[in-house]
Amino acid sequence: MQNIIQDLRYAIRILLKNPGFTAVAVLTLAIGIGANTAIFSVVHAVLLRPLPIEEPDRVVHVWESWRGEGTAPVAWPKFVAWREQSRSFESIAGCNWGDGFSLTGADKPEIIAGRTISPGFFSVLKIQPITGRTFVPDDAKAGAPPVTIIGHDLWRNRFSSDPNIVGRIIQLSHKTYTVVGVLPAEFRMANKAQVFVPKIEEAELLTEREDHSDQVVARLRPGATLRQAEAELNTIAARLADDHPNTDKNWQVKLVPLREQTAGGLQSTLWTLFGAVAFVLLIACANVANLLLARSAVRRKEIAIRAALGAARWRVIRQLVTESLVLAALGGALAVLLAHGLITVVQITRPDLEAVNAWHVSMLTPLRLDYSVLGFAMLLSLVAGVLFGLAPALAASRISLEETLKESARGTSQGPGHSSFRRFLIVAEVALALMLLTGAGLMLRSFWKLAQVKPGFDAANVLTVPIHPPQAKYSDRNRRIQFFNDLCERLRKLPGVEEVGGNVYLPLAGGNSQLSTKVHGRPPLPEGQNSPNYRVVTPNYFRSMGIPLLQGRDFTERDTTNSTLAVIVNEAFARSVFPNENPLGQRLGIGDGWWRDGDHLPREIVGVVANVRDGSLDNAPAPELFIPHSQSLWDFGLNLVLRTQVKPETLVRPVRETIWAMDKDQAIGDIKTMERVIAESVAPQKFNAGLLSGFAVLALLLAAIGIYGVLAYSVSQRTRELGLRMALGAQRSDILRLVIRQGTALAIIGIAFGLGGAFALTRVMRALLFEVEPGDPLTFVTVSLLLLAAALLACWLPARRAARVHPMAALRYE
Amino acid sequence: MIRLRQIKKSFQDKSGVNEVLRGIDLEVTEGEFVSVMGPSGAGKSLLLSILGMYDSTWQGEYYFLDQTIHRLNPKQRAELNKRYIGFVFQQFHLLDDLTVAENLEMPLSYRAIRKSEREALVADMLDRIGMVARKNVYPSRLSGGLQQLVAVARAIITRPRLLLADEPTGNLHSEQGRQIMELFQKLNREGTTIIQVTHSEFNAGYGNRVLHILDGQIEEPEKSTRDRTTEEQQAK
User: Fold this and answer.
1) What is the structure's pLDDT at A567?
2) pLDDT tens, B187-212?
3) Which residues sit opposite A608 in a β-bridge?
4) What is the value of ipTM here, to two decimals?
5) Is A674 a member of any domain?
6) Which CATH code is given to the segment(s) B2-235?
7) Which pLDDT does position A414 carry in this prediction?
8) Closest Cβ opposite residue A808 in set B55, B82, B91
9) Does the beta-carbon distance from B45 to A724 stay under 8 Å?
10) Exposed end of chain A (fewer CB within 10 Å): N or C?
11) Last residue of a domain, one of A603, A632, A664
């Protein structure tokens, strides 16, 4: 123990005596460990940390699956059948994809996120309210008095933690609800739901077997496995298919563990980033190892004296490794501060990482420096300390006293083993940096290509305003339509507004619905054509968005329930369904609620519009149908889009005032420009490309510093040789060439290995790339040249110093 | 061949300006073998360094062959050094990582000489110094005398007209020293001008002129002991 303390004390003294070396090593390690810790905090939050519910491993998502391929939302009658017939689950519950409830009663109406759930929902998640009760089956019966359970935040912020909240009446979307319970503070869903209401099982709901629009979660009975439960539900599904062949045939069931569902498509992104950041740490370790090797050469005499005084080899190693560990501990401490900053940056730039798959039943995944993350940072520091410290310590401890004394007459120099290990480290650093640069290059190319994609509309000068008139207040369809018509008219009159329209789902903002469709009087459409995207829009929507009308006409106020039912299709639909025909005048049967004699009422195609990238910029436009809002039977809110002649942001206030002038209780969603909607839709790709590029730049810098360090050291060690060469006739250019050749040779070998590694590793990135192949030659060539240029620059400085060597001074001439 | 007029060199240190060379006047004609002697710190090696054009920060006039050295820039001086001057160091300064043959080839590689010609010159030199069998040996495996032999060979492989040697036998025992001195003498007879710095009266005797430097100045030139003896014998 005494020895360890002595080692520690000596290590600290040595490091304090060399503040430059200590600062560079600690900073390098802090960058490597800090970046790793930050990314680990994301990986831990999203992929590793147990979900904040009891026995989360027993909770599964239950999906329907068309012929066993992929997953699809559940039709409520199927859920009811599973609930009644399955034995594998302790509890099972359905819920929708989330609601926005407008909470009125205070000064300004506020939209509160919520969910409509079946009574068993909280039993599945094993969540007990802190006060009151959860839902009971009677709450979901038709005609039951409306009740709600509210979240802890809402209770605290809006109701001042009222202890008598249970039984209190509140207004949600102009409907009166009684609060029956408050949820605990720890229960925080990803969609930030603070209001829960029961899904009323009306008779109509139980017949909608084709309406696949809900989610189901279930808790496995103790001992039941996911496979058993899936098999049981598939048996039930087969039975249902026999009973309802028209609607249930070909539908199977798929179970996904809650954790897997929460992580969603983020796994490959996160592991890629984690891999990338691990490379940064390896490069940092290689750099510090190189620094230590250089220092151990300087300390040969000290080590020789220690050996002469009787220090065993392991004792010397222990002393040197102790120094490495002290360095690593300092680096680790600084890294935690750095990680804290990085996590804040991630929280600001990627809020979705804390609310992964918010539309699913998923919990918030807060990013924070908890004990696990701090433990990881500590472990990483320890591993790094041994990793970069051991090899130099082993090498340094291998010296012979006799040789060292002999050498001292001619000045210090290193054995061939030392320098070849240092060269190996540089080659490895360059190879790792190249792999990272290639990954980042591919992501940047991919993002650039994505940014070049034309969305199909003109996003400049467009303001979007989400409005959901409460069903309770606007239960009369005509009143709701009139509200929107009047509102559009008023908004159009605002100075600076050119045109106003509306769509249920904004392009690129998420949200979709598809409806089964057929061409009237023809056999059913093949798969891929028979369920196009379904959009409800107002007149002038296309003009407001700058979507070209290719054929026919736009909707007008004359399209009402009394006129011919109209539909506008997009080019993709027209081309695929009517390849050699004029689509105008064709009639479509769409499952949008207009039925007669058990069949869809036909809608006439009155126009064809250009394609729009609706779901995401990286997906080709899908076939789409547009229905006039005035002919829609369903209660939809709308996203109004205002084309403006002025900066759209300047209209936010007048728009709000116009809406509240019409209805002071109308809640308004998040008003954004269309450009921001696009930017948010590509934010994940931008973040990935940005972060990976950041890591790659770090790697490039560290590798360049590594090359510089090795060459600078080599030059200082070779002063005698370089001076001699000059004394024997070498010109400055000869010396420059000599040193640069030495550095670039290492870089080129590293690049060659790196290219091989990158070629193999970038394959796993395929899913993250858009219109760029993992083996994209342009990226490979560009990053190789970039790295070579950085290496040349890193060689240049020591080379220039070498060329300035004064021959006689170098030879210690008198 | 060499004419120095009032060469001065000083260093600035903590105690102030330290004048090391204080107005050196010197003439060396082609074919001479000059030995420079003097106590440590007298400026002998510095003078050699200036003569070799390795040092360019001095005052005075230096004429070498038909060139006015003090008017040339460092690059032009380096070019002259490369063409006309060879240098032998006390510490040999062979490169440890290069073999004997490679050490010999190095100065040639800095001159525009084809590879085949370089190889021929190296082979010839190895033959001359009797080290053909050891051409692939690393310097550390050679005795001090052989190392200095290689160093001298390396200095003369470019056929310099002036050979400068800074205590070439300082690290050798007497027999090895004698061999090197005889080699110098032979080179001198073949036409190479030699200026050596030495502490040894005996070695200085191999030359035909001895200069004494004291406190940065040259004492009156004197004939070497051997020349004096020869003259005395002739007089008898």
Assistant:
1) 94
2) 999 999 999 999 999 999 999 999 99
3) A551, A569
4) 0.71
5) no
6) 3.40.50.300
7) 47
8) B55
9) no
10) N
11) A664
Contact by Cβ (8 Å): A726, A457: no
Contact criterion met (CB < 8 Å) for A811 and B89: yes
Contacts of A721 in chain B (CB under 8 A): 95
* Same structural domain, A259 and A270: no
Shared domain for A104 and A250, answered yes or no, is yes
What stretches of A415-475 adopt beta strand conformation (E)? 462-467
Is residue A677 assigned to a domain?
no
Same domain, A21 and A70: no
Number of Cβ within a 10 Å radius of residue A342:
21
Compute the distance between CA of residue A162 and CA of residue A155 in angstroms, rounded to an integer. Answer: 7
Domain stops at, among A634, A664, A694: A664
Does A289 share its domain with A362? yes
Domain ranges of chain B: 2-235
The CA distance from A745 to the nearest CA of chain B, in Å, is 18
What distance in Å separates the CA atoms of residue A789 and residue A807, rounded to the nearest whole number? 30
pLDDT tens per residue, range A321-356: 898 999 999 999 999 999 999 999 888 888 777 777
A729 and B93: CB-CB below 8 Å? no
Tens-place pLDDT, residues A503-546: 999 999 877 788 888 898 888 888 778 889 989 999 999 999 99
Instruction: Specify whether the CB–CB gap between A625 and A533 falls below 8 A.
Output: yes
Q: Give residue for tokens 């068993």.
A: A120
Run of H or E residues at B12: strand B2-13
Q: In this model, does residue A305 exceed pLDDT 80? A: no
Residues A535 and A573 grouped into a single domain: yes
Domain range enclosing A765: 2-46+265-451+683-810
**What is residue A309's predicted lDDT score, i.e. its pLDDT?**
66
Residue A387 lies in a domain: yes
Write out chain A residues lying below 8 Å of B75, CB-based. 731
